[in-house]
Amino acid sequence: MSRSPKDPQRAEFSAPTTDSVSAVNGSGIDHDLNKNHLQRENPVMAALAGTLDRGRRLFGRPNAADTPTSAFDNTPSDSASSPPIPTAPKMHFTYASGSSPLPRYTIRRGVGIGGFGEVYFAVSEAGKEVAIKRIQRNLDVELRGVSHCLNLKHPNLVSLFDVCRDDQDQAWVIMEYIAGPNLREVLDQHPQGLPEEEVRRCLVGLASGIAYLHDSGLVHRDLKPGNVFDDAGIIKIGDYGLSKFISASRRGGHTESVGTFHYMAPEVGRGEYGREIDIYALGVILCELLTGRVPFDGESSHEIVMKHLTAQPDLEGIASPYREVIKSALEKDPRNRPQSIAQMLKPLGLQIDTFGSGTPATMPSSLGSTSSPAESKQDPILARLASPPAAPGASAEKPIREEPLARAIRGSLTDLARWWESLESYPGTRIAMMFMIVALVVINTGWLVPLLTFVAIFYVPYYIIRHLVLGIRQQPSYAEAHQLAVARAQIPRPLSAGQWRQQKRIELASKRSLTRMTELSGSWTKAIFWTAILGVVGTMIGLRDADLSAENIAPYALTAVTIGFAALALLGMGKLWERGEGEPLSRRLVLAGVGIIVGSFAYVASEYLLLPIGGTALSADVADNLPQNLYTNEGVPRLAAMMAHFALLMGAVGWWKNTDPLRKRRLSVWTVAVAVVFEWAISLALPIPQPWGILVAGGIAIVLQLASPWENRHQEMQVS
Ligand SMILES: Nc1ncnc2c1ncn2[C@@H]1O[C@H](COP(=O)(O)OP(=O)(O)OP(=O)(O)O)[C@@H](O)[C@H]1O
User: Fold this and answer.
1) What pLDDT sits at residue 446?
2) How many whole angstroms separate alpha carbon 327 and alpha carbon 284?
3) 224 among the known binding-site residues?
4) Is there an atom of ligand 1 within 6 Å of 60 CB?
5) Any ligand 1 atom below 6 A from CB of 225
6) What's the pLDDT tens digit per position in 520-530?
7) 3-class SS at 487?
């Protein structure tokens, strides 16, 4: 096993002894003294110091008593027929070439010795080349749940074939043999780091594998370059899942830490093992890939741990946006880190594959956000529920992949945002650019608005149909639904607010399309009912001292019709989106398209009802300053102005939150107020008659909430 000599932790593992207490801190200082000192200063450090003790004992080589008599050096014995292996320091393995400690497998040679045990290159009776890993005798292997790991399938994960016991009841992991080097070896040969292209290649592979693990409810816990292989150009992550089923002495009560100190997140010392620890480790690895050095290094393990807990990483010389990505991944507080791998890599514009299909795809944001890592780590069953594995027999509820056009737009906007941020060093540039952009948009409204209308008219129906079709294709089978129900029953009660939301979201996602359509038609009926009620009440209040003539009623009718039309459209979109928390930017883009349609509808309806909209509402001085291509000389908004206004209103307000069955309250006054304030603010730039606009915005928010289904968490909790 090759480890960098500059690393005290690695040095310890490569030359393990059973009694070298002071070797852990590398400084010769008595370890217990150090631990007492740390305990006074920092309880977390003390916990980690205790971990060092246990880790040293656990990672130590088996005692002589454990070791069978035949031992051999790591010299390739039959290299003619076997894949090449990198040269490694001389190591003493328990089993010799040609021996068969495990029925049906013959050992060819030792590959390396790690914290869990020895790894051998072996062949099966039928000639299948595999790597077999002997789990050290002092580690209890919990075989329950192993099948979950064994059935994971992803091109960026080293395949696990089986876990067996030999006749001495010793556990062995049988896995895919990787002939290529691990990243530790690659990095040792590149002390200045790898070229950017290489870094990105490694990162995509790593991120895809980890995201898939997370989506399958697993946290790797031991990410480090030594566990990542380059298999003829394909990055493969190994050692995943081991920490999950090696129990008792290794991780009893979550008090033992796993992992290598350079890559270990600060909260590991507190026994926290959420996804964020993998995100942290990925940040460290990214830094090392780029620069050849880890962000927190030191003379001793204690120094490294202390830096993880307190120091800011030195990211000098790392270019943007890598610097920002690493910085956020290395936040001390896990809640401040990106909450998913996709979120972490977003600024880099990398595409990752989380489906195990081998086809790169953008990480679906819905999954990343449906399950809060903080909750997943408290409740592994819930984590699994949130992201069921794609393994055979397992529930295969997958998120709908992001629509390609929305993805392209989101990518371009991300690039634009990055460029925008890069302007900060030139004061005033942003303001000047802002004016230019606004001027360009206003000057070009003549052709921009028809173009956007054209796109919206085709895109919105396409988007809806695509979602419906993909949604139908992804209906869970009866067996999958049953499996979900059984797993759900195992979740301890009462659920926290987050857990409840997570569980409900899964139920919403697994709903059948017919149920969804039935619910939608119910919501539409209610929306029409509530719109009519609001219309009547509004008219009665507004016309309490006036004649109920058609001319007077017409503006109220127009308000109600616009509210009703917008509510129907938004309820439809909300139904499509209720299955996940969603990607706000793409939702806003789609809603802007809906807004164009609503604006056109309101304009056409006003013409049809012979009510020149705003003819009396916009004051003369406002009308004078309005662009001619958007407003008439009298200040009446033209079609383009109505489209643009409603596009902004729909895109700016998170309307899907009004229709989300998991919203906090059935009817939130705050949400209504937000819609009204946005309408008012938009009206400052692109006026429409007021209070007509405000009534429409507020009315839509009220009708949406009253018409959408609502899950009352508190009531449900009381019942259960
Ligand atoms: N599937 C595999 N194919 C080829 N080599 C492997 C495979 N798995 C592990 N190795 C090699 O075997 C050696 C020991 O690996 P192992 O995973 O046991 O230890 P480690 O990762 O170095 O430490 P730890 O177990 O503490 O994480 C390493 O050099 C590793 O590169």
Assistant:
1) 73
2) 10
3) no
4) no
5) no
6) 999 999 999 99
7) helix
173 close to ligand 1 (CB < 6 Angstrom): no
Contacts of 260 (CB under 8 A, 6+ apart): 9, 10, 222, 224, 226
For the stretch 696-716, pLDDT in tens is: 999 999 999 999 999 887 776
Residues 525, 548, 620: CA angle, nearest 5 degrees? 95
- How high is the pLDDT of residue 605? 86
Ligand 1 proximity of 115 Cβ (cutoff 6 Å)? yes
User: Which residues have a catalytic role annotated?
Assistant: 222
Query: If you measure from the C-alpha of residue 115 to the centroid of ligand 1, how many angstroms do you get, rounded to a whole number?
Result: 9
For atom 19 of ligand 1, the residue with the nearest CA is: 114
- 338: which DSSP letter? -
- ipTM exceeding the 0.95 mark: yes
* Among the listed residues 221, 149, 146, the one whose alpha carbon sits nearest the alpha carbon of residue 377: 221
Quote the Cα angle for 282-501-325, to 5°: 20
Query: Is there an atom of ligand 1 within 6 Å of 177 CB?
Result: yes
In ligand 1, the atom with minimum distance to the C-alpha of 178 is: 3
Burial 322-350 (b: 16+ CB within 10 A, else e): bbebbbbbbbeebeebbbbbbbbbbbbeb
What is the pLDDT averaged over residues 664-687?
92
Give the integer Cα–Cα distance in Å for 720 and 223.
40
Return the structure tokens found at 705.
């909430």
What pTM, to 2 d.p., does this model score?
Answer: 0.45
Pocket of ligand 1, candidates 128, 182, 223: which has the most ligand atoms within 8 Å of its Cβ, to mutate? 182
What percent of the chain lies above the pLDDT cut of 90?
31
As given in the structure block, the two tokens for residue 324 are 């920002």
The alpha carbon of 351 and the centre of ligand 1 are apart by a number of angstroms equal to 28
Atom of ligand 1 lying closest to residue 258 CA: 26
In three-state secondary structure terms, 133 is: strand
Task: For residue 310, report the phi and psi dihedrals to the nearest 5 degrees.
Answer: -125, -30
Ligand 1 center–CA 88 separation, angstroms: 12
Strands (E), 186-306: 228-231, 234-237, 246-247
